[in-house]
């Protein structure tokens, strides 16, 4: 039996990223965003979005997804 106390905080820090679509007509801003654990997860999400947009036809094949981070948000409360 261990008497060690878990000192890790009981919350996780997530980051809200915004995925703006840029094409030959300009910038279409993402006003909602999506919470990702880190930048790597945000890049994966952006790749999925770009893949889906490419399926929509020629209009979206020349564009790209711009990832813009937002301030950090805490989920839960520290114990």
Task: Characterise this structure.
The protein is built from 2 helices and 4 strands; from the N terminus they run βββααβ. 6% of the residues are buried. By secondary structure, it is an alpha+beta fold. The model has no long low-confidence stretch (mean pLDDT 79). Strands 1, 2, 3 and 4 form a 4-stranded antiparallel β-sheet that branches.
Topology (SSEs and partners):
Elements: E1 12-23, E2 26-28, E3 34-36, H1 39-55, H2 58-61, E4 64-75
Antiparallel strand pairs: 1-2, 1-3, 1-4
Considering the chains and any ligands shown, give keywords for the structure.
79 residues, 2 helices, four-stranded antiparallel β-sheet, alpha+beta, 4 strands
The percentage of residues in β strands lies in: 35-45%
Instruction: Report the radius of gyration as a whole number of Å.
Output: 18 Å
Tell me the structural class: alpha+beta
Biggest beta sheet summary: 4 strands, antiparallel
Find the count of extended strands (DSSP E, 2+ residues).
4
Could you tell me how far the N terminus lies from the C terminus, measured between alpha carbons in angstroms? 22 Å
Q: Can you write the helix and strand succession as a string? A: EEEHHE
**Unreliable runs:** none
**What is the number of helical segments per DSSP (H or I, 4+ residues)?**
2
- Helical fraction equals 25-40%
Average pLDDT, to the nearest integer? 79
Shape descriptor: elongated
């Amino acid at each position: 039996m261990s008497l060690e106390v878990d000192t890790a905080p009981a919350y996780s820090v997530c980051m809200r990223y915004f995925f703006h679509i840029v094409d030959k007509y300009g910038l279409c801003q993402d006003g909602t965003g999506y919470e990702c654990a880190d930048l790597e997860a945000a890049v994966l999400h952006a790749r999925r979005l770009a893949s889906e947009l490419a399926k929509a036809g020629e209009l979206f094949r020349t564009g790209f997804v711009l990832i813009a981070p937002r301030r950090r948000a805490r989920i839960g409360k520290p114990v």
